[in-house]
Amino acid sequence: MYQSELNASKQFLTQLIQRSTTPQGLQWLRQKLTQVSDPTATEKDFYLAFGTAPRFVGKEKLALTAADLQEATELRAGFNPTNWTAGQAARALLLLSLPHADGEAYHQKLKKLFETADMGEQTALYAALPLLPHPQLFKARASEGVRSNIGLVFDAVALDNPYPAGYLEEDAWNQLVLKTIFVGKSIARIIGIDRRSNPHLAQMLTDYAHERWAAGRTVTPELWRPVAPFINETTFTDIKKLFSQPDEIQHEAAALACAHSPFAPAKELLLQHPDLKTRIEQNELNWTYLGAKTQTPS
Amino acid sequence: MTDTHNLMWLDPHVHMTSRTTDDYARMRQAGIVAVIEPAFWLGQPRTEAGAFKDYFSSLVGWERFRASQFGIRHYCTIGLNSKEANNEALAEQVMELLPLFVCKEGVVGVGEIGYDDQTAAEDKYYRLQLELAKEVGMPVQIHTPHRDKKAGTIRSMDVSLEHGIAPDMVIVDHNNEETVKDVLDRGFWAAFTIYPNTKMSNERMVEVVKTYGSDRIMVNSAADWGISDPLSVPKTASLMLERGISLEDVRKVCYQNALDAFGKSGQIHESDWISETSDVDQRLKFSGNSVLRGGQTPVTGGGATPASGDSSASNIVR
């Protein structure tokens, strides 16, 4: 029923909000938290508190220290509220304070919220998924978030969020990864990207690469990260092709793909590129480095 | 159009849901920095409350995002319009939805509400919504009837006063030469819709401002799914300047008065668009399910607005 210890998560969020809001903002929030956690509170009380939270708590970005980040991931593996605002964190707290003993009733209340949410509310809702009780009830909702055509909403569910890797079915997961690439964001920010890679995703990604190449375009070198463990005779042709492309970053991707592949010819191919091989062994060249490099304007 | 000195315009009544991205691009190019979209009907009556829920959600969600991609800030007013108030069974359900939406970010009023045929049902839901506006401290945007206009306009004002709403919290829309005096005399805001064929023409609008001055008067396009012009505000501004109305008066009528009136919601501030974050950032823009429209370079910064027909403006979602 829980992904994290609820009270500890609430305490942690309160602590972060405290640093980024006014005493009045905090006081307003405490009062609303008490109000909505009461089983006799009306739905209207909750919806109004959720909607107006940023007006009272503010929209200042949370200031997380390295220690906070550590604490976040100890509370919930992969949890990372670095990009959250105080108002957003207040909204998450409100979600965690709702009575939730009846999972279906809890889900229904949140469903109505998701269905009527503005952009900021949607962002807060999706980013809070990894802390919510009854996580198994929100799988379809998370897949719906991946379908959003609003960038910030898509990011909230797909990036820096450990919920999808934990709960999405394979098909939905594969759509999430492909769409992230498709819209030009770095898959390095997808939590669980390596753990959830699978042969079907590898196939979808190589098909996508072929489609792009056929149109005379390039693909992001990160595309080969989930493909690497599943390189076979067919995909190996693609990897060889990368080494013949003009950009250094494509060679780096090809070398990394070879290094992470169990396919023997790929291992041998890497031997022909000793410089890249050395950089990989020294951990100077890795997928994280490559992900960051794709996001740097050239 | 006459040079409008790079002034900024605000269109406080425009149904962008019915418009294309070309309109957004042209509006931004003509200097419109913000729009207010009142909730209205969609050309035919809805039959399910869910249709209203999704419509309201799109006004605070998708439409706002779509506008932002063209450098335009989008606000809305939320309400049950008078036409559809006549379906009482449905109206009851819509009334239950309204509290979910009236306090959302960027909702600047309850509207557009009022009378159309001036039926008993219209009266009932108009009054209930005035009470809601009073409860949450929001301005009211009033639609005045096409037929029996003068009587309907006066009645809407009387009823709002009866409910204890201050006139400066009420924007009375779709005025003409016959209604404007009553509205101004009573201390309400008087909005004028400039339509190519019906309602007001911009020629007549110039005369109204010459006669009544610029206090508490505002101009809008009410552009929607019918014949209408989303550039009515800048075009009227341009004509006013050409006909010798002062820059300051034009600025009030086509920008500042609307900002002051709807600003009473606390949800619309000039700083929303005059700040570094209000630059268009198409990197935030999204490509959906099928095509990234590869090869299109996102436009960032500078409130950039690709001209109509420029394919780089069509990077929005599929």
Key features?
heterodimer; A: 298 residues; mainly alpha; B: 318 residues; alpha/beta; eight-stranded parallel sheet; 11 helices; 38% helix; 13% strand; disordered C terminus
What does this molecule look like?
The complex is a heterodimer of chains A (298) and B (318). Chain A is mainly alpha-helical. Chain A has helices at residues 6-20, 23-37, 43-57, 66-75, 86-97, 103-115, 119-128, 139-146, 151-158, 163-167, 170-182, 199-214, 224-227, 233-243, 248-259, 264-271, 274-281, 287-295. In chain A, helix 2 (23-37) runs antiparallel to helix 3, helix 14 packs antiparallel against helix 15 (248-259) and helix 15 (248-259) crosses helix 16 (264-271). By secondary structure, chain B is of the alpha/beta class. Chain B has 11 helices and 8 strands. Chain B has an 8-stranded parallel beta sheet, sandwiched between helices. In chain B, helix 9 (202-212) crosses helix 10. The chains are: A mainly alpha (298), B alpha/beta (318). At the A-B interface, helix 3, helix 7 and helix 9 of A face helix 2, helix 3 and helix 5 of B.
